[in-house]
Amino acid sequence: MPVNIRGMKRSGSRNKNGITWPRGFRAAGATCGIKPSGEADLTLIAADVPCAAAGVFTKSKVPGAPVVVSRNRLRNRDHMRAIVVNSGCSNVCTGKQGITDAKLMCQLTADMVGCSEQEVLVCSTGVIGQLLPMDKIRRGIETAGHRLTTGSRANGAAARGILTTDLCTKSASGSFRLNGKTVRLSGIAKGSGMIAPNMATMLAFITTDVSISPKLLRQALRHASNHSFNRISIDLDTSTSDTVLVLASGKSGNRKISTTGKAFKQFQDALTEICKDLAYQIVKDGEGATKVFRVVVRRAASIRDADRVGYTAVGSPLVKTAVHGGDPNWGRLAMAVGRSGARVKPEKLNIRIGDIDTCVNGKPTELSRGQMKQLVRTMSKRDITITIDLQNGRHEAEWLGCDLSRQYVMINADYTT
Question: Are residues 342 and 206 both part of a single domain?
Answer without folding.
Answer: no
